[in-house]
Design goal:
Blueprint (H helix, E strand, L loop, with lengths): L7 E4 L8 H7 L8 E9 L16 H12 L3 E5 H6 L9 H9 L7 E5 L10 H4 L6 E4 L7 H8 L3 E4 L7 H10 L4 E4 L3 H9 L5 E7 L21 E8 L2 E7 L1
Parallel strand pairs: 2-7, 2-8, 3-4, 3-7, 4-5, 5-6
Antiparallel strand pairs: 1-9, 8-10, 9-10
Helix pairs in contact: 2-4
Length: 249
C-alpha cells in the first residue's frame, strides 16, 4: 500500500495522478435537485472500524477523498453516535476547502446536521460552541429526553422534530432541501445509513475498500432492517492497493 495520497482512475476513462479538480468533477453532485450520498470505509472482509473508529482504517488517499467529498456539500449529516465515537468537534473544513468554497460563492463551511432521538448531546461541547455555522439536530416529537435538555440544545442549534416516535428520514431530507441544503453528504454511521436506506433516501455510496483483513468483532457499514438495495458502479479509483468505489443506488 502506497500512503502518498496519489489517486488514479481505473474506470471509466483511466487516468493517473488525478488533481483535486479532476476528483471533484468525478464525484460532483448533480446540477439540480436534492441528492444524498454517504461515505464509508471498510476492510476487505467488511469491517467498518478498527479499534472502534472508522478513521483508523484510512490512509492519506482516503483522507484526501474524505475532505474533497465534504467540499461541495451544503450539509454534512452524521449520526449522534458517530459524532461521539469519531471525536467530532466544531465542524470546519480545512483551509484549502474553505477557500475553494468562498471562491465558488458558497459559505466557507457546510452546515452540520445530526440525528438524536434522546437528544444525548452536550450543548457545551465544541461541536456547538466552536461551530462556524449553527448546527441542526433532528429528533422526534416524543423524544425520550427531559424538556430542559431540548431547551438547552435549542440555544446552540436548530432542533427539528421530524417524526413522532422515530425520525422520518424522508422528512429530514425534505427539511434540508427546504432550507436550500440540497447537496447532502452523510458520514454515517451504520445505524443512520441503514435508516436512510430503509427510507429510500440514499442516492449514492462512496466506499473506500481498505487493503486489509481485520477479522474481530467490528460491524458492517449498515445496521438495521431494510430491503436489499441494488448498487450500480459509477467509477473506480485506486490509490496503491486501496480502491475508492462510487455506486449509484
Amino acid at each position: 500500500m502506497v500512503d502518498d495520497g496519489v489517486i488514479d482512475r481505473i474506470w471509466p476513462n483511466p487516468a493517473s495522478a488525478l488533481d483535486d479538480e479532476a476528483l471533484l468533477a468525478q464525484t460532483a453532485f448533480p446540477d439540480s435537485g436534492t441528492w444524498l450520498r454517504v461515505n464509508f470505509i471498510a476492510s476487505a472482509d467488511g469491517a467498518a472500524t478498527r479499534e472502534g473508529r472508522s478513521g483508523s482504517l484510512g490512509d492519506a488517499a482516503d483522507r484526501r477523498m474524505f475532505e474533497l467529498l465534504r467540499r461541495e456539500a451544503d450539509v454534512v449529516l452524521v449520526g449522534a453516535g458517530t459524532l461521539r465515537d469519531e471525536g467530532y468537534g466544531g465542524f470546519r473544513l480545512d483551509d484549502a476547502s474553505a477557500a475553494w468554497r468562498v471562491d465558488a460563492g458558497m459559505p466557507a463551511h457546510p452546515v452540520l446536521a445530526t440525528v438524536s432521538r434522546r437528544l444525548a448531546l452536550d450543548p457545551a461541547s465544541e461541536l456547538f460552541t466552536d461551530a462556524p455555522v449553527r448546527p441542526i439536530v433532528y429528533t422526534t416529537t416524543t423524544a425520550s429526553a427531559p424538556a430542559d435538555r431540548r431547551e438547552a440544545l435549542e440555544a446552540v442549534a436548530d432542533v427539528v422534530s421530524a417524526g413522532e416516535n422515530a425520525v422520518d428520514f424522508a422528512l429530514v431530507r425534505a427539511d434540508l432541501a427546504a432550507r436550500g441544503l440540497r447537496r447532502i453528504h452523510s458520514e454515517g454511521g451504520p445505524s443512520l445509513f441503514g435508516a436512510l436506506l430503509a427510507a429510500g433516501a440514499v442516492d449514492a455510496l462512496h466506499l473506500t475498500l481498505a487493503p486489509a483483513v481485520d477479522s474481530g468483532s467490528a460491524g458492517r457499514i449498515t445496521r438495521g432492517p431494510f430491503t436489499p438495495t441494488a448498487a450500480h458502479l459509477a467509477s473506480v479509483l485506486r490509490a496503491g492497493d486501496e480502491l475508492l468505489l462510487h455506486y449509484l443506488l
